[in-house]
Specification:
The chain has a 4-stranded parallel β-sheet, sandwiched between helices. Helix content is 51%, strand content 16%. Helix 1 crosses helix 4 and helix 4 runs antiparallel to helix 5. With 140 residues, it is α/β, with parallel strands linked by helices.
């Protein structure tokens, strides 16, 4: 099973995990880490490293970061030089991506799961009135 780590500002990641688990049920090997104002970079990097090691069952860990170039992502990148587990990090996640990761993490290798989750993020963005238009056109 691929581990899932969500690194975000404050408690955004915890809320995302809780919401996904509300939909799918309790998930093993999943954790959220929040980066709070005043946190030490070194301490957060150590937390990321420890979390990835703890979540890795041998299949790797998929890390979701809230924002490319922001502290949680940058600190994960900084920690990567000391992490011995296989992991990938996707910046800019959505709830459909986390649900997809939980649903498919026993069916794919880490690189495949990463790509599937990125594609889910792209296709998961929809605009209400465009979807109604497509529905109406399809059901004439």
């Amino acid at each position: 099973m691929i581990g899932i780590l969500v690194v975000t500002h404050e408690n955004f990641g915890e809320a995302a995990l809780q919401t996904a688990q509300l939909i799918l049920g309790k998930q093993e090997k999943a954790l959220a880490l929040g980066c709070y104002r005043g946190d030490s970079i070194e301490a957060f990097c150590e937390k990321v490293n420890a979390a990835i090691q703890a979540l890795d069952t041998g299949m790797g860990v998929l890390v979701f970061a809230d924002l490319f170039g922001a502290s949680p992502y940058n600190n994960t990148a900084k920690a990567s030089s000391t992490i011995t587990s296989n992991f990938r990090c996707i910046a800019g996640f959505s709830l459909p991506m986390i649900i997809e990761a939980f649903s498919m993490r026993e069916s794919y290798e880490l690189d495949e799961l990463t790509n599937v989750c990125i594609q889910t993020g792209i296709t998961g963005i929809r605009e209400l009135f465009k979807e109604i238009e497509i529905f109406d056109e399809t059901n004439k």
